[in-house]
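Structure in, sequence out. Go:
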């Protein structure tokens, strides 16, 4: 049962020995990649802060979609419960969900 062959022989390759120029190039690439990632994170953070500053979160769904476009006063906003008009040529029956897919608690 004993083999002269070592276990896992040939499966592992020795670590690469880089020249000082290759190490310097790797550090430079990593620095630029890190700066690009930091810039993206800052951009997302600034965008999120701007959106949160303009949102009225007291009404529920005001963060992602604003009914007023951000320029109307609070009393001029369209109520959230109002449904938009149907597209031309569409009937109420066509817009209704298929049977069995109505939301729970909806009037029938």
């Amino acid at each position: 049962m004993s083999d002269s062959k070592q276990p896992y022989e040939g499966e592992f390759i020795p670590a690469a020995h880089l020249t000082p120029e290759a190490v310097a190039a790797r550090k430079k690439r990593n620095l630029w990649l890190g700066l690009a990632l930091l810039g993206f994170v800052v951009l997302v953070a600034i965008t999120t802060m701007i959106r949160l500053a303009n949102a009225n979160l007291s009404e529920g769904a005001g963060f992602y979609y604003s009914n007023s476009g951000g320029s109307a006063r609070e009393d001029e906003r369209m109520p959230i419960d109002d449904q938009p008009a149907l597209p031309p040529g569409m009937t109420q029956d066509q817009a209704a969900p298929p049977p069995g897919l109505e939301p729970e608690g909806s009037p029938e």
